[in-house]
TrEMBL record:
It comes from the Eukaryota. One of its GO terms (molecular function) is structural constituent of ribosome. Its main location: mitochondrion. It is found in: Mitochondrion. GO terms for cellular component: mitochondrial inner membrane; mitochondrial large ribosomal subunit. The keyword Ribonucleoprotein applies. The keyword Transit peptide applies. Gene3D superfamilies: 2.40.50.100. The gene is LOC106113470. Belongs to the bacterial ribosomal protein bL27 family. This is Large ribosomal subunit protein bL27m.
Length: 139
């Protein structure tokens, strides 16, 4: 066998055979922190004790019931407390007497039967009216 025979072989002129496509990206490895761009929810109390609020103002946002609605305060579906009337915000810490017959109360307050349980309540005290009404008879 001569070496000339190996050198005289013709190259292929086909475009499809000469075109080789390489990978444009490396293979992706696994990672554990894929969703690290979670924005904070900013939950907690929004209005402090003694502030004047309009009707509909959000007083506190919460995931679990840390704060409870009191006088003129509404409780949203997601636990948000909001003012139902305009007035002054008063936060009180009141004694709570649970019904010990319920299984839910027994599970949540297990071991606290002889202790005082206190809860924080948001109240909105409405502003007094202006007392400038005129009766129809006097007009």
């Amino acid at each position: 066998m001569s070496i000339n025979w190996l050198l005289n072989t013709k190259k292929s002129v086909s475009v499809f055979i000469d075109f080789v496509r390489n990978a444009s990206k490396k293979t992706g490895g696994s990672t554990r922190n894929t969703n690290c761009k979670v924005r904070p929810k900013h939950r907690g109390w929004k209005v402090q004790d003694g502030h004047i609020v309009p009707a509909g103002k959000i007083l506190a946002t919460q995931r679990t019931t840390r704060f409870h609605p009191g006088l003129n305060v509404g409780f949203g579906r997601n636990g948000t407390l909001f003012a139902m009337e305009a007035g002054k915000v008063v936060v009180t810490c009141e004694k709570f007497e649970p019904n010990w017959d319920h299984t839910w109360v027994q599970r949540c307050y297990a071991g606290r039967t002889n202790q005082n349980i206190f809860k924080k309540y948001y109240n909105v005290i409405p502003e007094p009216q202006h007392n400038r009404f005129k009766l129809i008879d006097e007009v």
